[in-house]
Amino acid sequence: MGEAALWRRLVAECLGSAFLAAVVIGSGIAAHRLSPGDTGLQLFENAAATGAGLFAIILMFGPVSGGHFNPVVSLVDAAFGGLRWGDAVAYLPAQVGGCILGAVLANAMFSLPAGEIAAKHRASPAHFLAEAVATSGLLLVIFALSRSGRSRSTPAAVAAYIGAAYFFTSSTSFANPAITVGRMFSNTFAGIAPSSAPSFVLAQVLGGVVAFGAVRVLYPGLSPNEAGDVLVPHDHRVEDPSEVRA
């Protein structure tokens, strides 16, 4: 059995990213409406829904594309040899476009303007550090499990980590350039102003670089085959018979 056709993997990354953004933004809107004036409870509701949703989304789409939904994950995976560079680059617009679509859908589900630009400013030195820490921690979880043969635990581990990082980081752990761009298109509890987004993305990329180095030190034997199981093992039972015969 070979790998899934690239177009199928791109569809999976786009749909998964859309669901992820819809969960993050939609639960933020619901939390703001259900618990007005209680920011702590709103954040808890947002974090719980995001963690649960992320777990399910990785299980849904991971067997096709790996369930990255995050450009930093895809690029670091390519750096370890688990994904071809051309495929990693192709993943990026699918992930970003999916997150924008998810933001628009979340707005529409709550009768808000479909693409209203966020006005919530989040950029600060503390937020920059928080995003670098959140992203590096996320990648360490992913690649540590892959290297130690526990990739099937990754959906639960990633969901738990992101849920926790909502609270232990001042930025509420975006940890993903695609979701950062998507959240620009919702002027709600989970939104981020366009002027703040570049700082977040730069911190996330930096976090990816730090994580790459840390994984090299901690798990020097990480092979391309092990990296290829990020986030979850791909069983690749999705090819056309014509593709198999070819």
How does the SSE layout of this entry go?
Elements (H helix, E strand, L loop, with lengths): L5 H29 L4 H27 L5 H9 L5 H25 L15 H23 L6 H15 L8 H7 L13 H22 L5 H4 L13 H5 L1
Helix pairs in contact: 1-2, 1-4, 1-7, 2-6, 3-4, 3-8, 4-7, 5-6, 5-8
Question: Which terms summarize this structure?
Answer:
10 helices, Glycerol uptake facilitator protein, 246 residues, mainly alpha, disordered C terminus
Description of the molecule:
The chain is mostly helical. It has one domain (6-233): Up-down Bundle (Glycerol uptake facilitator protein), CATH 1.20.1080. It is 67% helix and 0% strand. The chain is built from ten helices and no strands. It has helices at 6-34, 39-65, 71-79, 85-109, 125-147, 154-168, 177-183, 197-218, 224-227, 241-245. Mean pLDDT is 91; it is low at 236-246.
